[in-house]
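In this supplementary section we document a worked example of the pipeline. Step one takes a protein sequence of length 451 as its only input; no multiple sequence alignment statistics are reported here. Step two produces a three-dimensional model, which step three serialises into structure tokens for compact storage. The input and output of this example are shown verbatim.
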Amino acid sequence: MGIRDNLEAHLEHLKSTTQGEHNFHQAVDELFDDVISYVEQNESEYNDQVINRMLYPDRVINFSVAWVDDEGGLQVNQGWRVQFNNAIGPYKGGLRLHPDVSLDDFKFLGFEQTFKDALTGLPMGGGKGGSDFNPKGRSNPEIRRFCQAFMTELSRYIGPDQDIPAGDIGVGGRELGYMFGHYKQLTGKFHGALTGKGPSFGGSCIRTEATGYGTVYFLEQVLIDQDDELKGKRCALSGAGNVSLYCSQKLIEKEAVVLTLSDSQGVLRSEEGFTQEQITDLIELKETNHGALKDYKDTLSDTSGLKYTEGGDVWDGEYDIAIPSATQNEVDEAEAKAIIKAGAKIMCQAANMPCTKAAVEAFKSSDVQNLPSKAVNAGGVAVSGLERAQNAMGMSWTSEKVDDELKSIMKNIVKACQDNGKLEGGKVDYSRGANIAGFKRVYKAMAAYYG
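The serialised model returned by step three reads:
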């Protein structure tokens, strides 16, 4: 059998032993659809058994988290940490708190993180974790007690040269502060075992903004390379968290037009484009009360031009660029067709795997250029890597220095995608380029260990 047959057999075996893990399978297929054809063309350089090793996490850690609510009742949640691959550096990836998470989610996220981190060029492996705890509706003391109980279990598996978690959905500065404070108490050590910390206690400037800013830097470089620019581009964004808000902030700074934001309850729309003042107010409101967009609309200092639609479709209307910034698989085939109908020329995936496989196929059959999540949203982990470097050196860089480093990293990722995703006629398949570039770096390290 040739290497294609061997790799397809490995994939079939993986799926037979991980039945029901649909998100994980989707992430594997998305990468290997490109990798198999590339490896087949360069068969003499690759060992299918080493590639097979990439498909399996180094370890999966599952633990119970027992904590006390405000009424004195004992609550129990499940916690996970998937340490997927440390071939090129310590495990690196966020912690997610959401009632619907499962092991499938963390395996998909850890797998995706491995190749995303490789794209940054920094020495970081891939991991992901979190809990089915829901911070919404909980008091600050309850969230603090949960975070401390969670860290009591997690602390034995992490460290600055072992595994360095960060924030993700449901884990912001407040939660990371509680977790790091308790980690410090448990270990007696003040070192970089977590990133996303506040700048006052070892965190990096612009870490909160990094994924959103990095999205815009990636998108801007792609347009520049096509002799185009962001100025005047109409952009539809989903989500109302850090990624979408800071992406919006940077887009407006670049004179693009931000038309929409959304959450699970509805869509906030401005046909003429949000102002920087409105986005700044939304950022401040999200930081203080973690509420819904419908609660914010009438509390902004400037509400002109805003319309809130409960249960609305964020992809309605006409725009140039679609930027899904909420969660995985938020764009299905029907929504992809709506985005195509809206006249979008670019799908810029700012969330982790926000498009279903059917949606991606719909974009491939259209004129929409698809920019993949593992490249587009690498800015967050890139700055986490820079935070780790600052912690190791005992230094704190200015916002300007970190921002310059972030711009450079995102520019290099664009180039890596272009170098590895060139098609006949000069076009670039950025998804193929990102997948192959990330794969090559991880494989080179693993081949040194196993090849």
